[in-house]
Structures are given as structure tokens and as C-alpha cells.
Amino acid sequence: MLAVGNLSWESGYDYLLTAFSKTHSIDNLILTIVGTGSLYSAIKYTVEDLKIDKNVCFVNKTPNLEELSDLINKSDIYVNFCVKYEPAMADEMAFKLNKSIVCTNVNSFLAKQKSKNINVIPTRSIRTLSKYINVK
Fold it and tell me: CA quadruple 77, 10, 92, 106: dihedral positive or negative?
């Protein structure tokens, strides 16, 4: 799984991490979080508190286009779990690369696309995201 964005609470990482920690198949999953932001340390502590530090890795930088494309290509699922819409180049890139995508209903670009690869779920719905991850 891949999540790209500003490391802030508006990006929904607390919800994403909680849902990720509740998946039945967590031993077989890796979540890569790409981005920078003022809450990097807090998000890392959340990962440790949830005891998922073996399954979550951080790329604490803003990748260039080639690096971003490579990260998206290597992922099975692209996740944008923001609670407030922030336009992201990674969203469009994941869509163009035909990746399996999970996004919240506030994501105006992805939520408006008509594609069987895009799963739009309610904002802050930990249970829905956790169920989706278990199916994949």
C-alpha cells in the first residue's frame, strides 16, 4: 500500500494507520508513507503505539516525478484517506497507471472518476477501509 501527501492530520493518516492496524492480514502488508510535514514525529509515534512499525515505512521527502512514478508502480493499492481535500499529483498519476485506489469522498479528483479501480469510502471510516484492505 502507498500513501503520498503532506504529513498532517488533514491528510487522515491517524485514520489510515488505525484502519491498517486492524487488518487481519497485516503480517503480509507493507504501508509506505511518502511525504514531509510538521507531524512526521507524531505520525511515527502513532505507528509505534499501534505496534505496526514492522509494517510501515516512511520516505520522508518530496519525491521527484520519476521517484513518485516508481513508488506508485511498485504498490498494489494507492490510498488517499484525506479528511480535507488537498489536490495531489500522485492521485492523478495513480489513476493514469490504473492502480487500485481507495480514497475518501472529499477527494474531488478521484471521487469523480468513473473507474472500477477506484473505491470511494466515507471520510474517517476506519471500519470501511479496514474491510477493504482485508479483501485485497
Answer: positive
DSSP per-residue letters across 2-43: EEES-SSGGGTHHHHHHHHHT-TTGGG--EEEE---TTHHHH
Is the confidence at residue 136, as pLDDT, over 60?
A: no
CA nearest neighbour of 10 among 31, 45, 32, 35: 35
Give the C-alpha separation, 41 to 23, whole Å.
24
Distance CA 80, CA 91 (A): 8
Degrees to nearest 5, angle at CA 129 with 67 and 60: 30
What's the whole-model pTM score?
A: 0.85
Distance CA 70, CA 128 (A): 28
